[in-house]
Amino acid sequence: MSASPKTLRDRTMIALAITPPIALLLFCISAAATWQAGAAKIRPMLERSFPAELIDSPVTQAADYADRTSREHTKSSRELASAVDALNEQYHLLFEVLEEHDDLFENLDEQHPINAYLNDYLAEAAPLLEMAKQLNPNEASIWHANEFGNPNSYSSGLASLRGLPELLRTEFRGAVRDKQTDRAMEAFRLFQGLGIGPTGQVSLRMLPLVSQSIAKGIWSEAELDEIVQLVETSPDLNQAWQDSIRSTKLAQIPWLLRGEVIETWRRDPIPKTFAPSRRIEWLDRNDQFSRVGGIGTFAAIKRVMKLQEEFRRESGSGLDLALQIPAYNQQHSPGQSKDYLATVYARVANERRHARTAAAVATYKLKFNQYPATLNDLAKVNLPASTTLDPLGDPFQFESDGETCELGNASIWFTDGRGYSGTFGTRDGTLSAILKQFVVLKFR
């Protein structure tokens, strides 16, 4: 006996009513299974880079360096850093003025208005500087904050050592003003020994000051050779990049394993979601960043930008993304992205080439009693032609009449601050984005 039309209609209505809940239930079961399957892949991926005990450590960065550092040496180093920070705080106005005065080396035979204040600071800092020499701050057993790979601030988020680099920079300035090259060289040696990685902070960079001093003709040929050696033994940029990538992964372990976002000093892209598929994509992309070579070049910047753009477009698995309750409110954690960091590395690489070229110009003058007519003449003092090129591969701007000369840090003049990371539409805009400021060394 066939069902009546009313019965069929009722059955149809019941089927229509229960289908959405059943579909939703099946979707949730499938999404949960996808979620669990994805989450199970993350720890094995981390264990390819780190031992299990490090992954499970409450403070992964600290544990990573515990075995090869000395508590005693680190304690002494931090006590010194605290003392320097306290003194620098008393002279904070001096440091602000120093950053505003580019003419401190303009004429070493004339008194500069800031000299008296600079001398007062250095007199008070003398005992601390002597402690720094005795401590040997570049000793491998001392836990330096910048080993965490933070390229923008000399701080691990746990301890700041900014004061000591500032002290050494100021000692270098004072020594150059007094034409005491032995003092200046010792400050430069100590600064280089700190092993500070690539940074965009002017207060943590010594090399631009060294390049300015070279143009003043105060260094001997032997001292210029040592400056070049110190520049050549600066932290390797490719290794510094790898350390930064590794440290980024360490810092994000709470998010990678459990979806926890912890506000720290680190500034790296984080997706909106804590879905396993997005965390896996983040790890995969992090590995792709680590395979970028030629760090310090414009080509590396473009490669990093391409990877980063791909990362931002990826959406993850629709199934586990559907379970995001709540989702994060922001696309990224605060701060700089990898293309910014690659740009900073390119700027530092150019500073090194500029310093080596300046040293070669000064050496040429000492050897031949005149400045070179062109940069090609620097082959006579064993400077490779590749060292005289700006980030775009063109020779530094150079003008010479034999008695005086000028050396730029780029092939053309560009407007300072016109460009910024990620905007490379024109030649001068690209140079501005990478170098920030057009610098001319005037040799007299």
Fraction of residues in H or I helices: 55-70%
What's the number of extended β-strand segments? 3
Distance between the termini: 113 Å
List SSEs in N-to-C order: HHHHHHHHHHHHHHHHEEHE
Mean pLDDT: 81
Broad structural category: mainly alpha
The Rg value, from CA coordinates, equals 28 Å
Sheet having the most strands: 3 strands, antiparallel
Bin the strand percentage: under 5%
Largest beta sheet: what is the strand line-up? Answer: 1-2-3
What sort of overall outline do the alpha carbons produce when their principal axes are compared?
A: elongated
Count of DSSP-assigned helices: 17
The residue ranges in which pLDDT falls below 50 over 5 or more consecutive positions are: 146-159, 264-269, 325-336
Helices and strands in order, then pairings?
Blueprint: H1 5-47, H2 52-55, H3 60-66, H4 71-90, H5 92-100, H6 115-135, H7 163-177, H8 181-193, H9 207-214, H10 221-232, H11 237-251, H12 253-258, H13 276-290, H14 298-313, H15 318-321, H16 338-368, E1 398-400, E2 405-408, H17 427-435, E3 440-443
Antiparallel strand pairs: 1-2, 2-3
